Structure to design on (211 residues):
């Protein structure tokens, strides 16, 4: 079984974490992947996680990660461990359940993931959250002052969310009666275009002569 896309990015991060002795919980997974995506874009490459990042209560996050987590758990690739941290708070940790499956992932992004986990994997979830808040995408979102905005990893203004507007347009389109072409309309339009071809040629020739 070969992992691709977001699944491959998650497995790659957990594989590097296991080899480095780094404990990963849900929050750390999200923040480490975000930092890897941000560094990839900063270096002129494409983000490798394949998710759409938004500003949530605890920094950048994507709902896709929970879906991927569930899929990997059901497939027996990842084990989800509920435990309590030093402060007695419930913590959900993620780890590979067995041997690392094959992944299809960009080599540069794999190197970035390894570097991010090596340099920042031992930071706490809170420290990682604070670090993400200092990145240009999160600083831009904070200036806007609106949570749930889509983050521009290049550090520009958060990308407008077009989905609510698209949903309204789809609803309007569904409520409209189906359109019917007038009989012969297409043939008439083609004939009209053809009749103007000579005039277009003369106009173009005059413009060129004028130059």
């Amino acid at each position: 079984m070969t992992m691709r896309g977001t699944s491959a990015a998650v497995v790659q991060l957990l594989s590097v974490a296991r080899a480095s002795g780094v404990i990963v919980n849900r929050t750390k997974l999200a923040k480490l992947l975000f930092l890897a995506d941000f560094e990839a874009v900063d270096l002129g490459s494409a983000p490798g996680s394949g998710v759409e990042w938004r500003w949530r209560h605890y920094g950048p996050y994507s709902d896709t990660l929970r879906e991927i987590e569930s899929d990997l758990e059901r497939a027996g690739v990842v084990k989800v461990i509920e435990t309590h941290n030093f402060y007695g708070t419930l913590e959900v940790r993620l780890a590979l359940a067995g041997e690392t499956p094959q992944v299809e992932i960009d080599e540069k992004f794999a190197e970035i993931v390894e570097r991010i986990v090596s340099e920042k994997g031992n930071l706490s979830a809170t420290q990682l959250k604070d670090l993400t808040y200092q990145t240009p995408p999160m600083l831009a979102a904070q200036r806007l002052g609106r949570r749930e905005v889509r983050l521009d990893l290049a550090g520009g203004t958060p990308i407008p969310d077009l989905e609510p507007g698209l949903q309204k347009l789809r609803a309007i389109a569904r409520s409209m009666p189906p359109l019917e072409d007038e009989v012969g309309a297409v043939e008439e339009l083609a004939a009209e275009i053809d009749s103007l071809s000579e005039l277009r040629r003369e106009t173009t020739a005059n413009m060129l002569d004028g130059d």
Remarks:
- The beta strands are 2-3, 24-25, 54-56, 59-61, 78-84, 90-96, 102-103.
- The CA atoms of residues 22 and 42 lie 25 Å apart.
- The radius of gyration is 26 Å.
